[in-house]
Amino acid sequence: MKKLPEVENAKALMKEAMDWSMFKWLFEKSSVRETADVANATLDRLNRKIKKQWSGGLQEAYRHLASQPGKGNGNGNGKAGHSAAIDAELLRLVQQVKAMDERAHLAREDAERTFDEAERQLNTSLAREGCKKAIHSWSLHEKAIREAEALVEGGLGRTK
Predict the structure, then answer these.
(1) Cβ contact 91:64 at 8 Å
(2) Are 141 and 43 spatial neighbours (Cβ–Cβ below 8 Å)?
(3) pLDDT digits (tens, 9 = 90+) for 12-66
(4) Looking at the domain assignment, is residue 11 inside a domain?
């Protein structure tokens, strides 16, 4: 996976923002939020693009995992008995990617909550912590994308 300019710009801004005063934060918070949103959207688009390149078997395994109660979207759409038809190795590989996706998503939510709380309290320490958490969430998302991409490059994920 090549470096994404939108994500690299957001990381650079967050690193810079860790030294800002609260006054500077008040004036720049919308720019920081916008830059973070662009980075998140870019990563989400790339993630979807990579998974569209997966084979039908990988895509089916991912959908199956997402349909399980307590996993993914938790809708439990009655496909639980379908897992026997899904190759165990594909399911294991996809489960690893899905777990990484979920960790990245939780890290993003944590960063957003931290920024919201920093803004509410006008607390620069929390804002700095939010910057660190945002950078961490992007790193996790990039790692998850690389894992998903490896399934394509390894021949497991190629669409026919």
Answers:
(1) yes
(2) yes
(3) 999 999 999 988 988 998 999 999 999 999 999 999 999 999 988 888 888 888 8
(4) yes
Q: List the structure tokens of 25.
A: 């934060």
pLDDT tens per residue across span 88-104: 888 888 999 999 999 99
* Enclosing domain of residue 33: 5-153
CA distances from 23 to 10, 15, 19, 119 (A): 20, 17, 12, 11
* Domains contained in the chain, number: 1
- Torsion of the alpha carbons at 100, 51, 8 and 137, rounded to the nearest 10: -20
Both tokens of 49, joined, read 């693009």
Q: Which residues contact 61 (CB under 8 A, 6 or more apart)?
A: 86, 87, 90, 91, 93, 94, 95
What backbone torsions phi and psi does residue 79 show, to the nearest 5 degrees?
A: -100, 10
Backbone angles phi, psi at 37, to 5 degrees: -65, -40
Q: How far is the C-alpha of 63 from the C-alpha of 75, rounded, in Å?
A: 11
* Residue at 119 is within a domain: yes
d(CA 72, CA 120): 31
Question: Is 159 contained in some domain?
Answer: no
In a domain, 144, yes or no: yes
CB atoms < 10 A from the CB of 75, how many?
A: 11
